[in-house]
Design goal:
Elements (H helix, E strand, L loop, with lengths): L1 E2 L4 H10 L3 E5 L19 H11 L4 E6 L4 H8 L5 E4 L4 E4 L2 E4 L1 H4 L2 H14 L7 E4 L4 E4 L5 H16 L5 E6 L2 E6 L5 H11 L4 E6 L5 H6 L5 E5 L9 E3 L4 H13 L1
Parallel strand pairs: 1-13, 2-3, 2-11, 3-4, 11-12, 12-13
Antiparallel strand pairs: 4-5, 5-6, 7-8, 8-10, 9-10
Helix pairs in contact: 1-9, 2-9
């Protein structure tokens, strides 16, 4: 991985030369700083303003692609005329385009059952937060209390080791994600929207394990940027932290102008 700002001149030239650009951004940990709970996450006004300006730049499409439910991420960003992806790409909506993974929709009952089981075993007082996002579920343990730690990880180990051809688990920042097996992921979502838009130059920015799917999808033909350096990441470039994303948004806008 290379530090983005040491290579910004070459990247700016590439952005300026492309007829069309699709900028895809994760939300939590990328556009918004990681919060104690998902409900506390907020998009700062300066980030929202920079996104709005970027979306109005010549030949630029903006795609906010999150693990959150589609309705939730749309409400948090609150901008029209951009694209949104929820549940890691299982559902996409934007100007003239709406898509949902039909296979993933069939697993809603299983996802709800497992989410309810975990919530019953580890209610709010334990520090575990379970989000049923309809097509996937998140089990957050950032605030897990020490007294419940052993029981929680033992239960998660049992759930994650269970063989299933329908659902699977992934790990992230203090979270376990329950997803439909073979469902669309962030890499699929980027390539699907890019095909719809006529295959523009793709820029992808993210900070978590699920963002590696879009970094892999853009290998050698897009611009992939990780928030925070991490060994083994498929991203070509990295930013030192989430605060630099604001500078990046403004940089892309300036390059296009």
């Amino acid at each position: 991985m290379k530090y983005f700002w040491k290579n910004s001149a070459a990247i700016s030239a590439r952005l300026a030369a492309a007829p069309e650009v699709l900028v895809t951004l994760d939300f939590d940990g990328t556009l918004a700083a990681l919060a104690e709970t998902p409900r506390r996450a907020r998009l700062k006004p300066e980030f929202k303003a920079a996104l709005k300006t970027l979306a109005a730049a010549p030949g630029v499409s903006v795609f906010i692609l999150s693990g959150r439910a589609l309705k939730n991420v749309r409400a948090l960003v609150g901008l029209r005329n951009i694209y949104y992806g929820g549940n890691h790409g299982i559902e996409i909506q934007g100007p003239g385009f709406a898509w949902r993974d039909a296979g993933a929709a069939k697993t809603r009952g299983l996802v709800a059952g497992i989410a309810a089981d975990i919530q019953e075993r580890f209610p709010a007082g334990t520090g575990v937060l379970v989000e049923n996002k309809i097509f996937s579920a998140s089990v957050h343990y950032r605030n897990l209390k020490a007294a419940y730690s052993r029981g929680f990880f033992s239960r998660m180990k049992v759930l994650m080791s269970a063989q299933s051809g329908t659902l699977h688990w992934r790990s992230g920042h203090k979270v376990f994600e329950l997803l439909p097996q073979d469902a669309a992921h962030k890499g699929n979502a980027v390539t699907r929207l890019a095909a719809r838009l006529g295959r523009p130059l793709c820029v992808a920015v993210g900070d978590d394990l699920t963002d590696e799917d879009m970094f892999s999808a853009l290998a050698a033909r897009g611009i992939s940027i990780r928030v925070g350096r991490k060994a083994g990441s498929k991203a070509a470039y990295f930013l030192s932290g989430q605060a630099e994303v604001l500078r990046l948004l403004r940089f892309i806008t300036t390059s296009r102008e």
